Amino acid sequence: MSTTRRSLLRGGAGLAGGALLASGAAAQSFPFTPNQRYPDPAVQILDPSFARYRIYSSTLEQVATGMRWAEGPAYFPEGGYLLCSDIPNNRIMKFDEKDGRFTVFRENANYSNGNARDRQGRLLTCEHSVTRRVTRTEKDGSITVLADSFEGKRLNAPNDIVVRSDDTIWFTDPLFGINGEWEGSRARPEQPTTNVYRIGTDGKLSAVITDLVNPNGLAFSPDESKLYVVEWKGTPNRSIWRYDVQADGRVANKTKFIDAADQGALDGFKVDRDGNLWCGWGSNGALEAEPREVGGRRVYALRGKPEELDGVMVFNPEGKAIGFIRLPERCANLAFGGPKNNRLYMTASHSLYALHVEAHGAV
């Protein structure tokens, strides 16, 4: 796709802080104009308790665009930048808060999905196709492989990743990266189940959860006594399960915490210091039972209205929905960042959005 100066300016007119479009690999831009009214109507209060987290004079910003499917945001406070995956374009992108530049951090990223920063400030990456492994990028730029197999068989497609304060690394391993050719390369799964794994400080890999169908996002409660995991399939709706984390690293007492009814689709999420869950949200793709007339054709439309589902749903520690941030694109994942850890970054389809809030990331 050719890009003229005029189309670049038109597509980037709404970008905050002079951010650039992602270049190369048929990048798709998504024009956006910030709302001029305070408080921003995109921030919806579903319960009065959410009002304390809304900043009256803060508005939703599109800080970058030009990706095909944005995922895996991870913020690095030392450098004041955020990394995220552009999975179909097989690259990791970098947004620099200082100058608003949006550039390619890594090409040929093995269709990376989830990213995280470890306690030493190094990048952890779920390479969810081709290599199908979890890696660490050292300070000198070299790559260390942390996990690529379990019990002699290759991992499926590492998806999302989180680091606990004891330096153990936890990640999910569904099938998405090997199910087709869009987010990687089709391959036969070797693991009999789709698991949640833990990498101990001794490097040993253990399967801590083996009974979820395609586990996706995961995060700990602020005190790390609870582990939350999204199950993409296997229940009537996408769900978040809650587990008690035991001293030896095992989990127990599986409990259904959130059921994403109303055609909603959970994906990645983060927890704030108060224990609220900020969840990527959008249509689950389910079709209506009967077709409807559209332009002279009988079409099976999506259930619900995706334009009303796209965004971030916020749940309190009891699992009650208290707030919603509407986005013009479906949100896959998010991360807290900024100098004060109160800037919510949201990877949504083609773009990266940001919103300052009165909440801070738990880790």
TrEMBL record:
Domain SMP-30/Gluconolactonase/LRE-like region as annotated: residue spans: 69-349
Keyword Signal attached: yes
Keyword Hydrolase applies: yes
Keywords noted in UniProt: Hydrolase, Signal
SUPFAM superfamilies (UniProt xref): Calcium-dependent phosphotriesterase
PROSITE patterns: TAT (PS51318)
Annotated signal peptide: 1-27
Single GO MF descriptor: hydrolase activity
Name of this protein: Gluconolactonase
